[in-house]
């Protein structure tokens, strides 16, 4: 019995919004044409009251977020980071990177082809929004990345916006040395 009452109450609760939408919708035909002039008259009266009283308030956020016409993705807002290096026996990065959340960055990853190497860092890639990855003048706009692997010599350029604050690493899979990783601190 209680299950039946519960089901009936759920059905009644779900049908109320639908009934309210049907009642609010104007009727077809003559009733619809009668409702339109009334709505227009009401809008005119509201407009007259605004003119007599105070003007409508407009909120403008240009002072805080004035990035220009192209927004945050403009070249003027982009910071080029020191490149990462993938070479057998060489350190990946010269030091730690400190990034600001909301900042637009570009970093090059250079591989010399001395060994098949990759950079892996799922946590880092989830903490940023990748605008594009450029490889041999081919632009890729991925939904997500976990790692980048180089079989031969080449360069990949990643442009991204740092999002989630924290400490993240990009490291060569299977390596344990501190020189085989790049540390990114997003503030």
UniProtKB/TrEMBL annotation:
Residue span of region Disordered: 27-57
Biased composition (Low complexity): 27-40
Signal peptide range: 1-20
Key words of the record: Signal
Composition-biased stretches (Acidic residues): 41-53
Superkingdom, natural source: Bacteria
Protein name: MSP domain-containing protein
Lineage: Bacteria, Pseudomonadati, Pseudomonadota, Alphaproteobacteria, Rhodobacterales
């Amino acid at each position: 019995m209680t299950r039946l009452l519960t089901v009936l109450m759920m059905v009644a609760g779900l049908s109320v919004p639908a009934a309210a939408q049907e009642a609010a919708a104007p009727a077809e035909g003559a009733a619809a044409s009668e409702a339109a002039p009334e709505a227009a008259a009401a809008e005119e009266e509201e407009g007259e009251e605004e003119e007599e009283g105070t003007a409508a308030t407009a909120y403008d956020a240009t002072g805080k977020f004035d990035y220009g016409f192209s927004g945050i993705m403009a070249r003027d807002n982009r910071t080029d980071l020191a490149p990462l290096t993938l070479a057998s026996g060489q350190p990946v990065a010269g030091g730690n990177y400190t990034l600001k959340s909301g900042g637009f960055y570009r970093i090059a990853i250079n591989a010399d082809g001395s060994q098949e190497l990759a950079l892996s860092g799922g946590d880092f890639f989830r903490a940023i929004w990748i605008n594009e990855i450029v490889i041999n003048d081919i632009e890729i706009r991925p939904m997500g990345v976990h790692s980048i692997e180089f079989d031969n010599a080449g360069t990949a350029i990643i442009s991204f916006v740092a999002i989630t604050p924290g400490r993240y690493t990009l490291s060569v899979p299977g390596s344990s040395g501190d020189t085989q990783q790049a540390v990114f601190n997003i503030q």
